[in-house]
Amino acid sequence: MTNLFISLYIKLFFLLTPFFVLSVFLSLTEGMEKPEQRKLAVRTISAVLIIALVLYFAGNPIFSTLGITLDGFRVGAGALLFLSAVSLVSGKRQRPEPEDDSDVAVVPLAMPITVGPATIGTLLILGAELASTSEKLTGAAALVCACLSVGFILFSASTFQRLIGKMGLNVLTKITGLVLSAMAAQIIFSGVRNFLA
Q1: Which of 4, 12, 179, 180 has the fewest CB atoms inside 10 Å of its own CB, making it the most exposed?
Q2: CA-based angle 62:64:70, to the nearest 5?
Q3: Residue 44: in which H helix or E strand, if any?
Q4: CA distance 16 to 114
Q5: Whole-structure pTM value
């Protein structure tokens, strides 16, 4: 279970694209006082945590209701994740503008920046893949830890900005994109292999 936890934690941490989220967070909070910035970080990660856990546990009910096979969804979600990875590597991922009457902690920071379409699909698959109760709980614990790690990065946003700078943030975002592209390929290959079998 320890190996499963570590493996899932690393995957989920990169899936939440923490360094891209950090760059958007910094641009949206430019000019804010540090206490206000930290309050926004707490609200953002609270929203992310709730959304992610709901999606994680909703996989099987959604698939059974819609009549979609897990392998079919793997191929679709893997393709979306790959497109998301390409946009991170190329630096062309769009940053949605906040609506005037919305809380930026929820829209756009929690959704769709941190939990976008590709992340939604992958969380649904992950929740459906883990069959036993112990595996499901391990996955949930890894998801909570990954969300809290992203929350810590946002909470310490000004410190991270000072330490790694804009160039370092861009490099880490591209590395995240490479990791996500490998995850996407694995998800697609699993779906195709199981379908053909």
Answers
A1: 4
A2: 85
A3: helix 34-66
A4: 5
A5: 0.92
